[in-house]
Amino acid sequence: MVFDVYAERVGRLLSMMDREGLDGFFVLVVEGLNWESAYYLSGYRGSSAAFLVSRHGGVLITDGRYLAQARSQSPFEVEDQGGRSLNEALLDRIRRMGLRRVGFEADRIFHSTFLELHSHLGGSLVDCSRFMPELRRTKDRREADLIAEAARICADAFLETLSLASPGMTEREFASMLEQKIVSSGAEGGWGSHSFIVASGPRSALPHGVPTDRVLCQGEWFTVDFGARYQGYVCDVTRNVAVGSLDPWARDVYQVLVAAQDQAVRALMEGERQASQVDQAARRVIQEAGMGDLFSHGLGHGLGLEVHEAPRVSSRSQDVLAPGDVITVEPGIYLEGKGGLRVEDDYLISSQGVECLSSPLPREMFVIR
């Protein structure tokens, strides 16, 4: 990525700061937590840093382990925190720059960190937790292409994994093989923040069923919710796999889910932008099939540098979808004691329409024998 994009993003951040009467804003990365926002603004992907933005520009503060990395990845000034803690170095820079009203992400720092910073800055700290979700929500073409490339890698890896899978292997073995294939196909890895969902038989009724040592059995099916990270960006896809033969109930449920997903996408293509109405378009199909009570979660969510980002697509969402949003559309039906299925794909909303970024992976009920 050319460095100009970071200047543009910091420029948008400065406009938000002006509206709030701020003369400074910082993001903290501690033990790798919150690297996404620092990367988005500065290009830096290390596991410890503070990125401070003001009218004077941006400054990236980190320690000796990351100085060379920071200077190669970011166009902004890099400051060595030296023998100081990260908090001490940040506070010192804020004082030297004379910043009086400084925004921060209250929902992205430890309470102990807040107490230390507040004890020195007091009322000059302003919670601006909404800034980064708002900035990161709108994806440019390059970001969408990175998500699409992650999805292409996932498609290749999933199909290869299916060709090697067989009844008798465990959920955990399938998940491990899939992630290994994703890495060998060119991705950084899976999501990183949590494991894939691989849930078989009655366990497939668990929307977030993490892999176990349960064996994939003949006559059952399993649901796989997975993704890849490519140059920082992730995809999020769900497919279902029959073992040996396709259960008639699962076949019927799958057809309902495909119709529900199609209806939601149709609503998007026709210009519907109220997230709650898009959710309702899919939910109505499931309700008409007599399974409305079995769709227990929202229709989707935004994604980008994280698996779950703004906006939310659910019956309670107040979000209005807009060009640049990348969202999942993932209707699911779950019957406790029997099992469940989900169909999930990733879509870019643009001024030209709606684009499925995960289209390389066929939307079908797969079978292993």
UniProtKB/TrEMBL annotation:
Transmembrane segments: none annotated. Residues 9-136 form the Creatinase N-terminal domain. Pfam families: Creatinase_N, Peptidase_M24. One of its GO terms (molecular function) is hydrolase activity. Keywords: Hydrolase, Metal-binding. Residues 146-350 form the Peptidase M24 domain. Belongs to the peptidase M24B family. This is Peptidase M24. It comes from Thermanaerovibrio acidaminovorans (strain ATCC 49978 / DSM 6589 / Su883).
